[in-house]
Amino acid sequence: MYEINERLKQLRSVLNITQLEFSKRIFISQSSYGDIELGGRRINDRIVHLISTEFSVSKDWLKYGIGEMFIDDNLDTRIEYLIEVYKKLDRNLQNYLIEQSELLLKLNDKITKNDSK
Questions:
Q1: Which residues pair with 70 in a beta bridge?
Q2: Buried b or exposed e, range 37-75, using 16+ CB within 10 angstroms
Q3: What is the mean pLDDT of the chain?
Q4: Are residues 90 and 53 in the same domain?
Q5: According to the model, what pLDDT value does residue 75 have?
């Protein structure tokens, strides 16, 4: 079974884009991305999320090789709008938005756990 770095190479091949273009679209340097593809650097959940969002790639496929490579392209219009807003922000505000979103997820988990009791 392929490792995540091999699946990234496969994804880039299917998309027919360079490491430079791929790395720019997920907001990391080409050298950092190259290290990921070579297996010298681990990929974190933020990068997995960015790849999934930017290229409509299944997180399960990317992380574990499970299922189809691409997710349904009919994304909810609210998600598409959020992505467009995110892309217009400068890098610091993008990072802030991600941090706040992670805090909202934690809050949501707490609320969900309390509702199930």
A1: 57
A2: beeebebeeebbbbbbbebebbbebbeeeeeebebeeee
A3: 89
A4: no
A5: 59
Tokens of 108: 């949501």
Domain ranges, residue 86: 77-115
Whole-model pTM: value is 0.61
Query: 46 with 90: CB under 8 angstroms?
Result: no
Question: Do 104 and 82 share a structural domain?
Answer: yes
pLDDT (tens digit per residue) in 47-99: 999 999 899 899 999 999 998 898 876 556 667 778 888 999 999 999 999 99
CB atoms within 10 A of CB 7: 19
Domain stops at, among 64, 88, 107? 64
| Same structural domain, 55 and 16 | yes
Number of domains into which the chain is organized: 2
